[in-house]
Amino acid sequence: MSATLKLAVGSLLVGCLVLGLKALAWWITGSVALLSDALESTVNLATAVAALVAIQVAARPADSNHPFGHHKAEYFSAVLEGVMIIVAALFIAREAYHGFLDPHPVTAPVEGLAVNGLATLLNAVWAFVLVRQGRRLRSPALEADGKHLWTDVVTSAGVAVGVVLALVSGWWMLDPLMAALVALNILWSGSKVVKESLSGLMDEAVPDRVLTEIREIISCKAEGAVEAHDLRTRLAGKATFVEFHLVVPGDMSVFTAHEICDRVEHAIHDAVPDSRVTIHVEPEHKSKHSGIVVVD
């Protein structure tokens, strides 16, 4: 089992535990705000399942129907997660509305907040692990899941503050008010996740830092060539696709041109893991004099 898949399974187990703890906190207290926190955790669990499935699909090798691989499957999971976050926000808003109509005191707040606090701590630790490992493994699904969990941590802290303030002040309207704020916060979080995931589905280019590194590699490692132009990159899950035209002297042998391409390709592979490099070799009269200058 790959590291990515192990983390996805871990998310599923953590999601079940956290949901159970938050549901218990709501059952103890009857708090609308804690109910909203538990509802968000149902989304965490559902998206953990979606991420697990997407990661398994993304790991499949290329086939005749998908010659470039299945890397983008993880972006679909991230989009689904964002949509489900938005749906959860609407459910929470509904509960907050009913809480405004009929506010009531919270029972056993200390016990409920202690249980909810334990769930929040567990979420915080796992969110840190997912974001860090998701970036290291270049997994959009894991990173999106981690960011969502971190949003859950922030909202859980806000919920706890709201319940404490309601308890101290006796103004129980603060309980549904905090639930409404939770709904607004995760609504913003869900829209952000969807936006970032759609960028991946739209073949977004690599970050400027990586693009600069690729250009420098071509310039330094393509010794013997004249120039490179029409450099294009795109991200697809873990994979990074790099394409460009390499101009060589017209009298250069195919063998020598191929050696240059191999040298450049290996250097890009070393700098950009899971890269897929395509180089189109052209004779000198195809120079555009506006691309990447090769250092002799």
TrEMBL record:
SUPFAM superfamilies: Cation efflux protein cytoplasmic domain-like, Cation efflux protein transmembrane domain-like. Gene3D superfamilies: Cation efflux protein transmembrane domain, Cation efflux protein, cytoplasmic domain. Coiled coil: none annotated. GO terms for molecular function: cadmium ion transmembrane transporter activity; ferrous iron transmembrane transporter activity; zinc efflux antiporter activity. Residues 207-284 form the Cation efflux protein cytoplasmic domain. It holds the Pfam family ZT_dimer. This is Protein p34. GO terms for cellular component: plasma membrane. Belongs to the cation diffusion facilitator (CDF) transporter (TC 2.A.4) family. It is a multi-pass membrane protein. The chain crosses the membrane at residues 41-61, 73-93, 113-131, 152-171. Keywords: Cell membrane, Membrane, Transmembrane, Transmembrane helix, Transport. InterPro entries: Cation_efflux, Cation_efflux_CTD, Cation_efflux_CTD_sf, Cation_efflux_TM, Cation_efflux_TMD_sf, CDF_Transporter. It is found in: Cell membrane. Its main location: membrane. PANTHER family: MITOCHONDRIAL METAL TRANSPORTER 1-RELATED (PTHR43840:SF15). The keyword Transmembrane applies. GO terms for biological process: intracellular zinc ion homeostasis. NCBIfam families: CDF. Residues 12-202 form the Cation efflux protein transmembrane domain.
